[in-house]
Amino acid sequence: MLKSGYRWLVALLVLSAAGALVFYLNRPQPVAVVVARVETGVVQDTVANTRAGTVKAHRRASLSPPVGGQIANLPVGKGDSVKAGQLLLELWNEDLAARVMLAREEAAAAAARAREACVVADVAQRDARRLKRLFEKGVASEEQRDNAQGQATAKTAACAAARANVEVSKARLDVARALLDKTRLSAPFDGTVAEINGEVGEFVTPSPVGIATPPAVDLVDMSRLYVSAPIDEVDAPAVRKGMVAYISLDAFNGRRFPGTVSRVASYVLDREKQARTVDVEVDFDDPRDTENMLPGYSADIEVVLAERDEVLRIPSEAILEGNRVLVYREADATLESRDIRSGLSNWQFTEVLSGLEAGEQVVISVDREGVEDGAPAVIERIIAADD
Asked: Is the torsion defined by CA of 229, 234, 237, 238 positive or negative?
């Protein structure tokens, strides 16, 4: 009997060990998670553009001469920096230049004739006064006095007519100069030549009414850039001029530039019926930030609607459907589902009004398989707030 009982004891121990081994081998494996600590900091309520915005220049001019003609002089090239008033393009205009010279000489001749006529008038006036005095002394006749007075009046009128003719000649010179100026294209402001459509010897023609043609010269003022981006019509009413904003560009990955809302469009764009938007413009706060930027870059804006400092916050990516999070419990290395009440929120941080305490750790790798309430877990990495 004793030997039989011993065998049963051994069998029981073997079965127990096998069961323990099976349980150990089939136990739930801890899932590796990335967590972030619940901490205090700044949380902003923001809105962002729905589609990519564009970097633009406050001053950009598509310039073309008002008249057609053959390009005779093209003193600038693409990428050149120019000053206001600098010549950009000149059409063949030798005939108009000759007209200006002719009008200038005619104006000079008219001025000379006017001086001559006025000198003659001055002499006639002196003669008339002298004969008047002689007539009063009885030396000159009344006829002589009247003739002298008539001559003086006529010469004075001729002087006035000559002076008027000078003004006419000046006006003709101004007309000739205006016609000549139409063949010259000058920079209206300091800027950079972005595009030139034409070469010396080619003909350019003005754009017909209602038909846009490429400009002869595209001039851009690179010193003042801004971003124009579409904001969804639902978010647009909260955006106001003067609000703080941040600008990010694909060409400057990882950088956020401070800006200020300078304009909110007063109308809704309905080009896409299911995605109506309002254009919002944001200026760069520091002009030095735009030194290496080019108009046409794609850009995104984030407008700050409200901001709170030193509030409890967590990364927004940690929040699951139903306004809940998964908390890593250090005591038993498991995950716990926790309902929270949130406040301000943006793509980066969400304010926590209740449901969490500072120092607790929330899971942000929520899309990994096995990450769920009650699951055993091991921390793979702790994300800092600035990461």
From this structure: negative
